[in-house]
Specification:
By secondary structure, the protein is an alpha/beta fold. The protein folds into two domains: 33 residues, no CATH class; 85 residues, Nucleotidyltransferase, domain 5 (2-Layer Sandwich). Helix content is 33%, strand content 19%. It has four helices and seven strands. The strands form two sheets. A five-stranded mixed sheet has the order 4-3-2-5-6, covered by helices on one side. A two-stranded parallel ribbon has the order 1-7. α4 links the parallel β5 and β6. The longest helix is centred in the first third of the chain and has 17 residues. The termini are far apart. It is a single-pass membrane protein; Single-pass type II membrane protein.
């Protein structure tokens, strides 16, 4: 009948403030992004040789891959063997504490591997590891 008999509690709409929850979710998202470790890949799948003494390399910042056709790949790009030194120098300048890992295919030639290692040493990187599967 009459609307004026309604209490003030019934007239107010009840709502939940979700702002604090959004703040917490946003902070958690930032935390997970900052603490996540990202896996770097050379850009191709390489059939690595097996080694009984293979050791996990923790701080591999530069990955160089050599495929079965002796093509050199850095950061998912095929590069000329003559430009390996300059690219490695630039990547090493970005992260001086990182190591260089060469992923050479079993079918690749030692000549290409030695050229990549030589270019890396001329670029000032002496901490070089060869990737292998754990047998």
């Amino acid at each position: 009948m009459r609307d004026f008999l309604k209490s003030p509690i019934e007239e107010e709409e009840s709502s939940i403030d979700i702002t604090p929850m959004l703040d917490v979710v946003f902070i958690m998202l930032i935390f997970f992004i900052v603490t996540a470790t990202f896996i770097k890949e050379a850009g191709i799948d390489v059939d690595k040789p097996s080694a009984a003494t293979a050791v996990l390399q923790e701080k591999a910042s530069i990955l160089v891959a050599i495929d079965a056709d002796n093509n050199v790949w850095i950061n998912r790009r095929q590069v000329d063997i003559r430009s390996v030194r300059s690219i490695v120098e630039r990547l090493h300048a970005e992260n001086p504490k990182g190591t260089l890992v060469i992923q050479a295919d079993k079918e690749s030639k030692n000549d290409t591997l030695v050229q990549v290692m030589d270019a890396s040493r001329r670029a000032g990187i002496y901490d070089i590891a060869l990737a292998a599967n754990d047998s």
